[in-house]
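Lab channel / #folding
Pinned by the channel admin:
"Please post every new chain as: sequence first, then the structure tokens as a reply. Keep commentary short and put observations after the output so the thread stays searchable."

First post following the new format, from NK:
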Amino acid sequence: MPSLIDLRRRIRAVKNTQQITKAMKMVAASKLRRAQERIMSARPYAQQMQRVLASVAARVDPSLHPLLTVREPGPASKTLLIVVTGDKGLCGSFNTNAIKSAGGLVSGSPQRCELGLVGRKGRDFFARRGFTVLFEEVGLFSRLRYDDAQAIAETAMNVFTSGQVDQVVLVYNEFRSVISQRVVVDQLLPIAREGVEGQGKAPVSKVDYLYEPSAQEIFDELLPRYVESQVYRALLESNAAFFAAQMTAMDTATKNSAEMIGSLTLYMNKVRQAGITREIIEVVSGAQAL
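Reply from TO:
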């Protein structure tokens, strides 16, 4: 049976941990609010970009631009898998779910896969296990900017247009609500024709356009911008999902620590009462012996 001093030390340690989890929960809640605002600001632009591309692609031959070129899969085909994880832990299954999905894609794909790792947790996991890593980016989420998404998108477009890879896929956590995040696997390149031709959610306008400059020049300008916006949106979604997962995990940890403090306090009281009873018995026994 542990002594009262050991129990008091343990209760004090759990209370200190509870203060840390409470503080982390409040910090995550504050950062989540700002991350949600950035998502709400980025979504209209991404949706409008999709509508514009839907209208343009419906009237332009997709083979005119290399980002729309679909290559036939073969034994020598390669896929670039861009995996977005967090730079920190203490966020429940946030990083584990993304890593598990990416690992399943690599092991289950008949094609060879190269990895582009965004986030320290994903980098540490895959680098230690000998996976082929094409590029890695860590420390982006402490100060996330559009330039970071541009650099990642440019790397993806360069390796795709040069023929180094035949497909580029994004794996990230999508923010749905504070208590709900889901892993999304999106094909980034080649740009899915149903995504730009209006067969998805975005309707295609029936009005024709006069292009100034030419439709080819507009395509050359909009498609790279579309890829950048998709990468940026994935980073924003993952950032918000991380803070939501961290806030939920810290809230659960705070509640669990409160339950542990209650059970330890009850056990400590029982030990103290047992000690008092034992001392009373010893005093009474001593008095009777005298």
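NK: DSSP finds six helices and five strands in the chain.
TO: also worth noting, The two ends are 31 Å apart (CA to CA).
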